[in-house]
Amino acid sequence: MSLKKEVFAGLKWSTLSTIILALVALLKISILTRYLDKADFGLMAMVTFVMGFMNLFNDMGLVSAILHKRGVTKEEYGSLYWLNLFVSFAMFGVLWLVTPFISYFYGEDQLNILIPLLGINLIISGIGQMFRTIEQKNLRFKNISLIEISAAVVSLALAIYLAVDGYGVYSLIYSSLLKFALTNIFYLFLGLKHYGLLLHYKFSETRPFLKIGMYQVGGQIVNYFNRDLDILIIGKLFSPELLGGYSLAKQLVMRPAQILNPIITRVASPTLAKFQDNKEVLKRNYLKLVNIISTINLPAYLGLFIFAPWIVQILYGEGFEDIVSLVRVLSVYMAIRAIANPMGSLVIATGRTDIEFYLNLFVLLVTPICVVIGAQFGIMGAAVGITFSILLMFFPGWKLLIYKMTGATFKEYCKAIFVLKLELLKGKF
């Protein structure tokens, strides 16, 4: 199959999977808000923040390294698998040790149970995530889509059943555990069947991957705090109920990008990597990618901003009117993040995770200041603060990353963003 056919086949399945998964997630939240209170969502936001941070170390950046590196041998895959599995167990041990301190920081005793319970996902992910990466590298998105859709639907059914039965926040925890277990077990069986797994480990074989991956992890850690520091601050300064309302608003505004962006970027990352040796071709295709992302995201977020009161009413029901203003402010924030999202594909394609790390380190100097100052005026202030911080980083992001990697001028970059047209529909990507 030609590269063009592989890309469009991957795009088809990626589109189907992304839309269904996003709709399932949206349906899940919409139903559970009828049975759970804001405090439950606030607790889950705290647990999710901690787990998201731990997952950065659990991955070690190996996903990006495997996608970037060509001609990976079975011996290298074997070494990477066993290293990743060992790290998964180690990260769970670290999480178990630090949980009491996290619970004390937030002043929530329930976290002593919730965090280690959801932390089992760290171990579960270690058994299958590398095989998922191999499937993605080979553009086999049909397998990925079928596995993730099946697991999401079963997980949704369990979450609804437990919520109706009065399990509260545990309905969110147990459904997440089931989803992780199903997906990773399926990836393990699929990987063993198609690729096999050697009982082989040699650290020297993992070193080139770790060199790329460690910069990626460093960049992701900094970027994670840049993106979710608002959750940390609000969780500390305000009640779980207020954090729950903010978290629901943020989940809502993230949904369009979660639906739309992965459709393109999951295929774009391995595709752009094929052009890493030709800077001009890489620039041309990257700008097309930015244009596609902008064309589908900007109208979506404009619609969310305008129709926020009706959307909140339909999805969350009565009692959530107070988050409408948050949804509108955060819509601006997420629109900008959505446009910047293809930078990740560019970093993976070029292997220049070091540049991403230094850029994110610079962002870390700006974001906390804006969020902390804004939080002094309440939750709305925190939302305005994080939105202002991302506006400040628009030009430096182009200069330090996009221009350096592709040579695209600021005018070319802005044109790709604001001159909306679907290059994808012309079959040129």
Automatic annotation (TrEMBL):
Pfam families named among the record's database cross-references: Polysacc_synt_3 (PF13440)
Keywords linked to the UniProt accession? Cell membrane, Membrane, Transmembrane, Transmembrane helix
Q: Name one GO cellular component term.
A: plasma membrane
Superkingdom of source: Bacteria
- CDD domains according to UniProt: MATE_tuaB_like
PANTHER family, from UniProt? LIPOPOLYSACCHARIDE BIOSYNTHESIS PROTEIN WZXC (PTHR30250:SF10), PST FAMILY PREDICTED COLANIC ACID TRANSPORTER (PTHR30250)
Report the sequence similarity comment from the record.
Belongs to the polysaccharide synthase family.
Descriptive protein name: Polysaccharide transporter, PST family/teichuronic acid exporter
Lineage summary: Bacteria, Pseudomonadati, Bacteroidota, Flavobacteriia, Flavobacteriales
